[in-house]
Amino acid sequence: MATAKSNQPPTPPKAGTRPSVRVDDQLAADLAVVMRTGANLSDAIRLCVRQVADMYRTGWAEDVVPVGTAPVLLAYQLGKAPAPAPAQSRPSDAVTSGYDARRTTPAPPVGQPTPPVGQPAAPAVQPPAPAPVPRRQFRRAGPFPGVPVRHP
What is the chain's alpha carbon radius of gyration, rounded to the nearest angstrom? Predict the structure, then answer.
């Protein structure tokens, strides 16, 4: 194996190669934490490298640090994966596309008689919808959807 010259910048490995990494105690402990989620060794390494690369790309794109300089991570934000959507009660309630505007008539409230066939049901009184809250606009979204980038 040839050694890299000290005056040349390191080059990334080519796709399909199998780089070797010496695993010390700290790297083994860190990989064990990531692998507790069910990821195998390769996926854990890919995830970690991708996360750091996204942080670097964002720092460079937002002019936090010059390109080629490693930014310092000052904070991070965690969140849970969204819960699965509840099952639809009736197949007719399922929305099949964004253009599907079909609505089924809701059942009358308990204690009110069902209107005769052919007559419309009495409209239910609904409270007014709350006014939309204006959202703060950012220059560009971060590497994760819905997570804005803020300059320190």
Answer: 27
